[in-house]
């Protein structure tokens, strides 16, 4: 080897970026809220519930979302100090106490998320056709927990055993607004979905920039009259919902689109396909409630495949949507096609933060871990956007929209630092030659 390996007593950390996470987790309101859900007269040596939450968020932020990982930091003074912990819990205590948290703890976790997002409205809106909206992408994604016997694990729609949680992401950069853990066998529009939508829309109103309408975007799994009426009746809320065409005849939609736009007024998609657009209004009813909602669609006729091979018979595909927007059908189609970005948000949560296989055998505890993961996810996402805003991120173009969470972890959270005590101050020293050191320094100084 080119170097001799020796041990040193000098405090050195490989997670210097946790300093920015600890600063946000030091919010006094969050600590008070967590205190209200604990016992009225706790023992003097009892680790506060807020410290348990901070520990779990810290572990998730370094990509170790499992209870046993707390044992890796038993002799590390930096980890508990930077997170503001009175005492680092052992893996056993962390597991026991997280599993014992009441349901009300979720309100504290969501309260923290709501305040965090509301404090940064500049990251929550984007402009479409001359007006700013706060998009809210809602989607279900399976979480593979196969080979386990955890409560709620069952076969998902992708034929793997696990959970089927629903997520809501706000803004163009994908801040997580809310989530709900569900058993794997649950349908995306299962019992309780309407109530979850209602709570999520209320939370969206609390974080949205002033005078900015919310724009709900979701797939055909939520094409239900109850949901459409809820969206239509919620103030300052627009929506684009993919229509479920399970009982529809594509030929009828095609004929109507051709009738409306004219046989020759088609758009060429590629050498083998062309399309027509259509729209109409439909009255939707649910129990005693009803609403008149606009439908728009694109009817595509394909006569040859991508290689130019002619098809025996033309293929007709329909992309239809429910919407409250006044955009043209073509504009609605183009906007919905951007929705695939939300799949990347799922990927970052499940792979970058390693949160696909949840750590507890108890369903309620895994919901708490997912909520704490939401806190960690948003803190890392915020750091990524603030780093981009600094203009100092190496190798990034000025028009980059966001940093993937893995990039934030690898270049900021895992940045090495030396911990120094001097004149009653704790100083974290970072090597000035590190390519991301100027970015970290800009975060420490804050906005000008």
Could you explain how this protein is built, in words?
- This protein has 14 helices and 16 strands.
- By secondary structure, the protein is α+β, with helices and mostly antiparallel strands.
- Among the domains are: 12-88 and 369-445, no CATH class; 243-324, no CATH class.
- Strands 2, 3, 7, 8, 9, 10, 11, 12, 13 and 14 form a 10-stranded mixed sheet that branches. The chain has a 3-stranded antiparallel sheet with strand order 1-15-16, with no helix packed on it. Strands 4-6-5 form a 3-stranded antiparallel sheet, with no helix packed on it.
- The longest helix has 28 residues, at 363-390.
- It is globular.
- The model has no long low-confidence stretch (mean pLDDT 92).
Tell me, rounded to a whole number, the average pLDDT: 92
- Kindly report how far apart the N and C termini lie: 46 Å
Q: How large a portion of the residues is in β-strands, by DSSP E? A: 15-25%
Order of helices and strands: EHHHHHHEEEEEEEHEHEHEEEEHHHHEEH
Radius of gyration: 25 Å
Q: What overall geometry do the principal axes of the alpha carbons give?
A: globular
Largest sheet: 10 strands, mixed
How many helices does DSSP assign?
Answer: 14
Give the tally of β-strands. 16
Indicate the percent of residues in helices.
25-40%
Poorly predicted runs are: none
Q: Which structural class matches the secondary elements?
A: alpha+beta
């Amino acid at each position: 080897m080119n170097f001799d390996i020796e041990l040193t007593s000098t405090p050195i950390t490989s997670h210097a970026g946790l300093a920015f996470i600890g600063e946000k987790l030091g919010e006094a309101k969050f600590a008070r809220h967590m205190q209200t859900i604990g016992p009225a007269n706790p023992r003097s040596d009892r680790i506060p519930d807020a410290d348990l939450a901070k520990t779990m968020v810290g572990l998730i932020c370094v990509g170790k979302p499992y209870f046993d990982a707390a044992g890796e930091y038993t002799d590390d003074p930096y980890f508990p100090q930077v997170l503001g912990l009175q005492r680092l819990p052992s893996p056993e205590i962390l597991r026991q106490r997280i599993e014992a948290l009441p349901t009300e703890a979720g309100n504290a976790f969501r309260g923290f998320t709501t305040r965090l997002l509301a404090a940064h409205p500049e990251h929550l809106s984007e402009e479409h056709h001359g007006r700013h909206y706060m998009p809210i992408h809602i989607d279900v994604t399976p979480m593979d927990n196969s080979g386990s016997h955890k409560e709620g694990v069952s076969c998902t729609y992708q034929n793997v055993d696990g959970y089927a949680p629903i997520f809501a992401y706000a803004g163009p950069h994908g801040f997580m607004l809310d989530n709900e853990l569900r058993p794997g066998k649950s349908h995306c529009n299962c019992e309780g979905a309407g109530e979850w939508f209602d709570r999520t829309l209320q939370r969206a109103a609390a974080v949205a920039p002033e005078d900015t309408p919310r724009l709900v975007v979701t797939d055909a799994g939520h094409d239900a009259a109850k949901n459409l009426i809820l969206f239509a009746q919620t103030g300052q809320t627009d929506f684009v919902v993919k229509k479920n065409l399970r009982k529809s005849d594509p030929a009828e939609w095609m004929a109507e689109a051709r009738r409306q736009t004219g046989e020759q007024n088609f758009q060429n998609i590629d050498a083998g396909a062309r399309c027509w657009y259509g729209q109409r209004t439909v009255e939707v009813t649910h129990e005693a409630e009803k609403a008149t909602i606009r439908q728009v669609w694109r009817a595509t006729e394909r006569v040859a495949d991508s290689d130019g091979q002619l098809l025996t018979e033309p293929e007709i595909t329909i992309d239809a949507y429910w919407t409250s927007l006044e955009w043209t059908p073509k504009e609605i189609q183009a906007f919905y096609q951007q929705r695939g970005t939300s799949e990347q948000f799922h990927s970052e949560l499940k792979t970058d933060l390693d949160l696909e296989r949840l750590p507890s055998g108890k369903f309620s505890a895994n919901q708490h871990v997912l909520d704490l993961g939401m806190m960690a996810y948003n803190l890392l996402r915020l750091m990524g956007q603030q780093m981009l805003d600094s203009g100092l991120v190496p190798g990034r173009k000025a028009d980059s929209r966001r940093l993937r969470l893995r990039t934030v972890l690898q270049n900021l959270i895992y940045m090495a630092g030396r911990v120094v005590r001097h004149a009653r101050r704790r100083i974290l020293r970072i090597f000035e030659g590190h390519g991301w050191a100027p970015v970290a320094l800009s975060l420490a100084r804050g906005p000008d």
